[in-house]
Amino acid sequence: MNRDHYRALKETAGLIRRLDRGRIALAGTDRADYLQGLLTNDIVALDDGRGCYAVHLTPQGRIVADAELFNLDDRLLLDVHGSVKDMLVRRFDELVFTEDVDIADWTEVWVGYAVAGPTAEQCLAPVLAKSSRTAGREGSSMVFDDHECRLLSWAGVPVVVSRTDPFGSMGFDLWVERSGASDLWDTLLETGCTEVDDAATDVVRIEHGRPLFPTDLNAETIPLEAGIEDRAVSFTKGCYVGQEVIVRVLHRGHGRVSRRLTGLTMHQLVDPTSIAAGAPLWHENDAVGEVTSSAFSPAVGAVIGLGYVKRDWLEPGTVLKVDPERVSAVVTALPFVAS
Question: N or C: which end of the chain has fewer CB within 10 A?
């Protein structure tokens, strides 16, 4: 990890190319009702200019994909992991019957960036000051609420700006039409952003206990195990795919799941790259979980990780062993650092 990149994310603002993301747009009068039955959060309740985080589940309640979703003007925009973008476009299209819904893949038309760090708002301020809402309203407030999103016109090019805190700390996702992407990138560097790589963002998001799809979230995971239900699941909306499993665990099982995502701290000297995703966690001779992410954290002064641990061994301070070197991994409450 580049320490300068890490310091930018912790002390100023980092600028990140979101090369691993896919972008999907849904239009049509039935778009919100349509997605309401496919995603876990309350899409119908979103006002124009508001967004949310949601997941798409199998009927068994397992996570197929996650998405940042924005309700802007006459479209719903989904920011998803690139590995599932084609699958989602195909599946959404197959499930349209009589609904007025049009599904489009915007991945090649729009470029994705993120700006993250304590001064992210200040770095975006010059861009926002020169922007106008596409509806013709002049200017734009510099302050964004959580999951507020705006469709702006910057130098004649459409730009979507959304407050998503993508790595767990203050941060924004940006979509820009490809024709203006290079100019916007250069402008953000001029306003004080530092270009940072994915390795640095990975450390920050692990420090903040933010699970990543498909590294920490996948088709073996239900939202309650990952601890994302507070931000990803609506418990007041109507039916959606996979809801029965979630309700059964909450009502019959009183929210108890067999395992949960937790933090892991490895104080011994160990190369984090030697701890592969899926490395088993042991308590004496019992396999009790697995590591999903790990990295060295300068803030903690140790290698830290995220992993799933069976509930009987989730008490903070419990010492486990991680393969292949049987390094001690101490169960640690999340997040490792405060936002």
Answer: C
Half-sphere exposure of 104 (CA within 13 A, CB side): 12
Cα–Cα dist 291/83, whole Å:
21
Query: How many whole angstroms separate alpha carbon 187 and alpha carbon 182?
Result: 9
- Both tokens of residue 118? 């304590």
CATH for 3-202 is 3.30.1360.120
Q: Where in the chain is the domain with CATH 3.30.1360.120?
A: 3-202
Rounded-to-integer distance, Cα 107 and Cα 78, Å: 10
Fold observed for domain 258-339: Elongation Factor Tu (Ef-tu); domain 3 (2.40.30)
319 and 265 in contact (C-beta within 8 Å)?
A: no
- pLDDT, tens digit, for every residue of 95-149? 999 999 999 999 999 999 999 999 999 999 988 888 865 444 444 556 789 999 9
Distances in Å between the Cα of 306 and the Cα atoms of 3, 98, 168, 190, 289 are 21, 43, 14, 35, 11
Residue 281's H or E segment, with its range, is: strand 280-283
pLDDT tens, position by position, 211-228:
999 999 999 999 999 999
> Rounded CA gap, 178 and 82, in Å?
17
Phi and psi torsions of 315, nearest 5°: -60, 125
Tokens representing residue 299 in the block: 């803030």
